[in-house]
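User: structure tokens for this one?
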Amino acid sequence: MQTQVKEPQNKLPKESLRVGLIGDVIFDVVVLLIFAVLFGLDFLFEWPAWIGTVLLILLIISVPLLIIGYLGTVIDHRNWRYDIDEEYVQLRQGAWFQKDQLIPVTKIQSVETKQGPLLRRYKLRAVEIETMAGEYSIPALPDKEAYALRDEIAAYAKAKEEDD
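Assistant:
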């Protein structure tokens, strides 16, 4: 007996891309500040020349990697999908390495929403789903949609629990 599972259709909102890119910028600024401090210490304490050379090579290597990080965020956002029904919560993410997760509603132990400072700024919330096997997350949904999704998943899980 095989059941046919439809492809997940719901996408993340455009604001979640903005939050992801801002997170990338914050990370990049921290990395560049660390490099600036290390170059300053190299200049101040007159470390051996090879240390400055290694720092410069690492900086040159890190700049393209930071740019690739932005492209990765955009591409991953375009390919992120989710869907729920009475039987499953489906999550699909990734472009290069696609990851499909099918979470049976009967295995869900808890559902919660989380919000950090960046998500709060854009009125978004992450929906976290916990099972015995692990934790799954839909990274950013509008507040009302996140609460509705959380309540819907919880209702499906409770209904399945009562049926058993």
